[in-house]
Structure formats: C-alpha cells, structure tokens
Design goal:
It is built from 13 helices and 23 strands. It has helices at about 15-20, 40-45, 55-60, 70-75, 80-85, 100, 105-110, 125-135, 160-170, 235-255, 290-295, 300-310, 385-395, and strands at about 5-10, 30-35, 45, 65-70, 90, 120, 140-145, 150-155, 180-185, 190-200, 205, 210, 215, 220-225, 230, 265-275, 275-285, 325-335, 355-360, 360-365, 370, 375-385, 405. The chain starts with a strand and ends in a 13-residue tail after the last strand. The longest helix is centred in the middle third of the chain and has 21 residues, at about 235-255. It has about 425 residues and is an alpha+beta fold. Helix 8 runs antiparallel to helix 9. Bound molecules: adenosine monophosphate (AMP) and glycine (GLY). The site of glycine has 6 residues, from loops.
Length: about 425
C-alpha cells in the first residue's frame, strides 16, 4: 500500500510522536489528526468532530488507515466499527482491548495462562473487601474499568484503604469503572515498560523504557500521566529471556486460545522483583510518555510496521535502532495533576533545534502556541550516553517558558542497568 491517507486519533505527546514519525514515511500521502494538538497541527490537518464519529469521518474522507493513540476508543470498539466500513485500523478490537479495559479480565487471563502477576482477590462488595484487607493486610486497590490514571491506589494504612474502597464501590466516584475492584499484593521492585507490537502471530519488541509517574523530584508527590521517560533501559539476557518466555509468549498464546486475533500494541507494565518479572498492568496502546522517548530511537518506518500488523504480515522480528539514548522531560502547567490554568503563551520554541519537541496540551493560534492542558510539551534529547541525552533535554528546557511552567529536574538521573 502506497500513498496512504492516514488519520491519527488522539491529542497527547504520544500521538504527536506518532505523527512526527508517520509524517516521515514514504508510504504517506496525507496526514489527518483528530482531535490533535498544536504540534500535530503542523504535521497534518486537524479534523473537527468527535472521536466516536471517526469511522464515518474516515469513510467520508477516503482515509485508508487509522492509528489510534489512547485506550478509551479501543475499549469502546472503534476498531470493530471501522472494520465494518472496511477501513484498516491499527489496534486491538474490543475483545482484545479488555486486557486494559477490565483489570478483572486481565488478572483472570494471567492466572489462567500462568503469567506471573501479584496474587489477587476480587471482593463481591465493600464489606467483603474490608474484611479481606483486615485479615490479609494492605493491598493495591484497582478499579476494574478505565479511570484515566485514577483507578489504582497503593494505600498507606487500613483506614485510608477502606475509605478508597468506599469511594470506589459505594460512592462510585469513578462511575461504573469502580463498581468492581481488584485487591492485589503490593510488589516492591524496579518498574519498567516493555512494549510489543503483534499481528496476532509474529511480534517485535520496542526498546524497553522507564517512565516517571510521580509529580515531584525523587519520585515524591501525586501520580501523574507521566513527567518524563528514558530509553533504552539495558536489561541482561537472563531477565530478558524470562520476560519473553513467561510473559510475552504466554500472553500471545493465551490470546490465541481465547480466539482473539490481536493486532496492535501490548504494553506490559512490569515490576522486577528479585530478578523475576511480574505484570502490573497490560495496556493496549503505546505508553505515554514512553513513546516520546522510544520513537526517536527507531530507524524503521513505523507506518509500514503498523500497516503490516493490521494485514497480519509483520515481517520484522527485530527493529533497527539508532545507537543512542533518549531522555524526555515533560513540561506541565503549574498545579498539575490538580487544578491548573490554560491559555498561557509559550515562548522559546525557536531555539531548541538540538532536541525533538512533541506537543501535548498546546494550541496553535495565529502562529503562536498557547497552553491547553496539564501536560504541555515533551522535550526529548538524544545522545550516545543517557547523560548527554539528559544534558541536551534540560539545555532546551531552560530556553522554553510559559507562566507557571513546572517540570521535574531529575529525569534520567542516576539510572542503573538491570543485569
Ligand atoms: P497500573 O495501572 O495497574 O499499572 O497501576 C499504576 C501504577 O501503580 C503502576 O505503574 C505501579 O507504579 C503501581 N502499582 C500497580 N500495581 C501495583 C502492585 N501490585 N504493587 C505495587 N505497585 C503497583
Ligand atoms: N506511562 C504509562 C502509561 O502509558 O500507561
């Protein structure tokens, strides 16, 4: 397939990174984005309209290939609906997307397929949950459904655990998503993000990355959508093989046994505990902000890989990577992940040519950029060592400004290999 009209769905840094790479592909003719952001507006055409209407919009515009960034449309069945119109779309169908859309489905799937994950219990109601934690100690509390990053709590004591469970199951602060929960053992170890792309039978692994979820330096403060990321993380062969044999291959076999032809991304959030990998979560899309660190490392044509995936023709088992490291620093609006203001003019973007800039919550108005969200920009440095990548990223960050801009100062600092 050549001269493809491609539509990217989403509006974050991840989607701008996908747009950046797709726009370099010789297979592309025109790029469209919905809802898009200030950066994507420079790479393609922003479409008006709702994400729910993507199948109809794509059909009207003669779009040949849709790439979905975020999880919610996948869980809601955008792939199933595009296929009804014979539009090729990258991502799992709604059955496959349950890996992320239902933590209960994912935990049962892992148990059935002998995939290492924390021990867990599914309480029938609030009282059952509270009795369980009183008898068995503190547990990670996870809402069953999608909750935009607010569905997992690692409580500090039994009282706060009970009140989180009450808010999820009785007050229903997350709506239907928190009606059912999973209680699981709290694991302690090093967290990594391991992302594979599969066409249902073959797969290839992206470089392993690490994200920084907490708001403040030293991994303190509230959880966010991600304050930075680095890649690749070096992992010794023994652990790599455990990830491949115990997790990736059992996951793919398990999906096949369920009768699910999974074509898209499987993101494994892993915890390494004493050199053994455990799955904390499955996501059915690329990580954000991991993608912003990974994409600049890829030599291959991502549009070709995505298209091969959808046509069950994935030919690469090993990606061709640039021999360098990347460090992505996320610039956020002061106050994020709590209350923050938008509409602030962003300056200094002309003077950062040694980094790659991916936009997230930005808006382009009359050739000027303004903030339009909590996470605003992703500044990615690259170099032959992580230290060089980090220095470049922070060098560029120091030239960018908007009112109340905030960022972590320790992304990529003191990172060790995993042997
Ligand atoms: P999840 O959406 O399941 O990945 O959870 C979000 C974050 O919560 C993870 O990235 C971990 O930092 C943390 N987390 C989730 N499950 C556990 C667990 N069983 N033990 C310790 N931390 C966890
Ligand atoms: N960086 C974590 C995620 O994308 O879920």
């Amino acid at each position: 397939m050549r001269d493809m009209k491609v539509l990217i769905v989403g509006s974050g840094g991840r989607e701008d990174a996908i747009a950046y790479k797709v726009s370099q592909s010789p297979l592309l003719s025109e790029l469209y984005c919905i809802p898009g952001n200030g950066g994507m507006a420079q790479r393609g055409k922003i479409l008006e309209g709702k994400v729910e209407d993507v199948p109809e919009i794509a059909k009207d515009l003669g779009i040949e290939f849709v790439i979905v960034g975020p999880e919610a449309p996948l869980v809601d069945g955008i792939v199933d609906r595009c296929r009804e119109y014979n539009i090729s779309i990258f991502g799992p169908d709604s059955r496959g997307a349950q890996l992320e859309g239902s933590k209960i489905f994912a935990k049962k799937f892992m148990k059935k397929n002998n995939i290492p994950t924390a021990e867990f219990y599914i309480p029938s109601d609030y009282n059952d949950a509270v009795i369980y934690i009183k008898e068995n100690g503190l547990k990670a509390i996870k809402a069953d459904g999608l909750a935009g990053g607010k569905g997992v709590v690692i409580p500090e004591d039994l009282d706060s655990a009970s009140s989180v469970i009450y808010r999820f199951m009785v007050e229903r602060v997350l709506g239907k998503s928190g009606e059912m929960i999973v209680l699981e053992d709290i694991l302690v170890g090093r967290e990594i993000s391991c992302i594979v792309i599969t066409d249902g039978s073959n797969y290839c692994s992206l470089p392993i990355a690490q994200d920084y979820k907490r708001a403040y330096d030293g991994n303190r403060g509230p959880n966010t959508g991600g304050m930075g990321s680095i890649a690749p993380i070096y992992i010794g062969e023994e652990i790599r093989n455990k990830i491949k044999d115990r997790i990736i291959e059992r996951t793919l076999e398990g999906l096949r046994r369920e009768g699910i032809t999974y074509r898209g991304v499987i993101y494994l959030g892993l915890m390494l505990v004493d050199n053994d990998p455990y799955v904390l979560e499955y996501n059915v899309r690329l990580g954000d902000p991991e993608t912003q660190a990974i994409i600049p490392l890829l030599k291959d044509d991502i549009l070709e890989i995505f298209y091969e995936t959808v046509t069950s023709n994935l030919s690469l088992s090993k990606l061709n990577l640039k021999p360098c490291y990347t460090c992505c620093v996320v610039l956020v609006s002061g106050g994020y992940p709590g209350h923050y203001e938008v509409g602030k003019e962003i300056t200094g973007l002309d003077d950062i040519s040694e980094c790659i800039l991916f936009h997230a919550g930005t808006k382009l108005v009359d050739d000027r950029f303004y903030t339009a969200g909590g996470r605003v920009l992703n500044v990615v440095g690259s170099g032959e060592t992580l230290e060089v990548a980090r220095e470049k990223a922070y060098g560029c960050v120091s030239r960018i400004n908007f009112e109340n801009m905030y960022y972590r100062k320790d992304i990529g600092q003191g990172v060790s290999n995993i042997d």
